[in-house]
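Action item from last week, closing it out:
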Amino acid sequence: MKLYNIKKEKKMMKTIRKPFFITMAMLMLGYSTSSKDEGRSVFREARIESPTSRTAGKKEKKEKKEKTHPKKAARKTEEDGIVLAYIEQFKEIAKSNMSEFGIPCSIILAQGILESAAGTGTLSIKANNHFGIKCHKGWQGPSIRHDDDEAQECFRKYQHALESYKDHSLFLKDRAWYSRLFDLKKDDYKAWAKGLKAAGYATDPRYAKKLIAIIERYRLDALDAEVLSVKPEAFPVDAEAAIEEEIKES
């Protein structure tokens, strides 16, 4: 009888001991044992950051990294300088095209910056092609061969960059697959960026995100606001006249 009780006691102790050790382990690891719903780690909670603090932390790390890599910071500053100079050079024709064709100035400039590497790309230097527009059917103007999705594809060549800007606007305006873009609000650059990608302007899956990032980095949407708040005749930029004038000066 006594042996039976000892066995029974041992069995009970095993039953009690198991959850006891589990509970102790949870406490050591910092887990709450008050209820099943509160089984969260205190250790983890102490390290949970709000989205704001997380962003601030990333910013601090980024700034620290740039300080420890002065060459990268200098290169970034130089790139920004090139882009800002590009914007200054072409913002008036972009504004004019927005007024005339209804394409947001921010989108025009962002595409120009991205497609031409702010005027430093091969096509923009050799062919004054700032938007990567290929020859396509019906193009009777000059052309240049350049490797893109395929080797040695045919791209349009222009006498001047301003011709490229005007042709870009006509290219979007005259093609049916871009027609839905013109139903969008002129100040909704995000919708335009996504619409261009959806319509097949570029094969890069991140194309829309890249355009949006450029617009927001350089505040190009402010130029859209300028155009929308001013009468159309305030931007009488004649691309052909501007080209002739520049040829005379050179």
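Closing note: The CA atoms of residues 31 and 37 lie 11 Å apart.
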